[in-house]
Q: What sequence folds into this?
């Protein structure tokens, strides 16, 4: 029997230290809900988890960007719906004008046609999203095409007009389907003070003249509405895909990083019992040298 080194006590103390460390780590996981509370818990898992977290944020940003683009398309389509109604009314009035010789009626029709031209111009000129004309050559619809790299995708502008920095119409849009016949002969120049007159709206269009071809204007508006509709369908698909990817990334990140609370509780219970046993054994080991006193007394 030795008194200088109590090996039993040292062993019990070492085991107690180990189990205390395990309990501390388990309590961190139980209190945080994370299996990887620090890099030391699983360095490789932490790297994977952090990358997945970036992808989760990217997928959310992708959905939001696509929703913003959908909003642009919805604003444009709604404005063109009204333009369609106006031009349909103009077509009706043009037929009435041709079918009557009553001067008073013709004057009234031309006045209404003038107001229609003014309002169509107002719709095209002042339909904006976030301060930018929806029908301008430069109003492309953007979204995130690649979540991991953040690379953007672009849907070409539904360009019915060219607009300057002050919001004034400066000319026809690059995507106009009928050059200088339809809408361009209604809205015309940048300041809007040369909008088609009622006379020009009711007079049959001829090449090189300012008279408005209402059928061509309607064709342009309907084509633009169809384009906005197709853009909305595509962007809604992007939103659904982004939301699905965000959900799957979140599930993957959870499997890597989150703690299984039942498993951790089993570990905690086991280590708590071992801790109590180690403490008891350390107490017993510390009492062993006391037996030497009995030998010395005898």
A:
């Amino acid at each position: 029997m030795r008194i200088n080194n109590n090996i039993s006590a040292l062993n019990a103390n070492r085991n107690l230290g180990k189990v205390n460390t395990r309990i501390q780590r388990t309590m961190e996981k139980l209190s945080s809900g994370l299996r990887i509370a620090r890099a030391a818990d699983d360095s490789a898992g932490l790297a994977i988890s952090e990358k997945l977290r970036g992808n989760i944020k990217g997928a959310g940003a992708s959905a939001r960007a696509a929703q913003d683009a959908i909003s642009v398309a919805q604003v444009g389509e709604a404005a063109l719906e009204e333009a369609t109604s106006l031009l349909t009314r103009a077509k009706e009035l043009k037929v009435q004008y041709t079918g009557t010789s009553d001067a008073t009626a013709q004057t009234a029709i031309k006045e209404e046609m003038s107001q229609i031209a003014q309002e169509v111009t107002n719709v095209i000129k002042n339909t904006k999203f976030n301060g930018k004309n929806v029908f301008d050559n430069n109003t492309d619809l953007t979204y995130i095409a690649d979540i991991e790299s953040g690379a953007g995708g672009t849907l070409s502008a539904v360009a019915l007009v060219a607009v300057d920095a002050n919001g004034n119409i400066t000319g026809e849009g690059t995507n106009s389907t009928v050059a200088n016949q339809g809408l361009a002969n209604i809205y015309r120049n940048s300041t809007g003070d040369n909008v088609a007159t009622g006379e020009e709206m009711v007079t049959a269009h001829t090449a090189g003249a300012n008279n408005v071809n209402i059928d061509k204007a309607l064709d342009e508006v309907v084509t633009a509405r169809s384009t906005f509709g197709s853009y909305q369908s595509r962007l809604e698909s992007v939103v659904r895909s982004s939301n699905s990817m965000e959900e799957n990334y979140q599930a993957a990140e959870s499997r890597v990083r989150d703690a299984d609370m039942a498993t951790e509780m089993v570990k905690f219970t086991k280590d708590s019992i071992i801790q109590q046993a180690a403490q008891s054994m350390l107490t017993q080991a510390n009492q062993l040298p006391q037996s030497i006193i009995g030998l010395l007394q005898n």
Observations:
- DSSP finds eight helices and six strands in the chain.
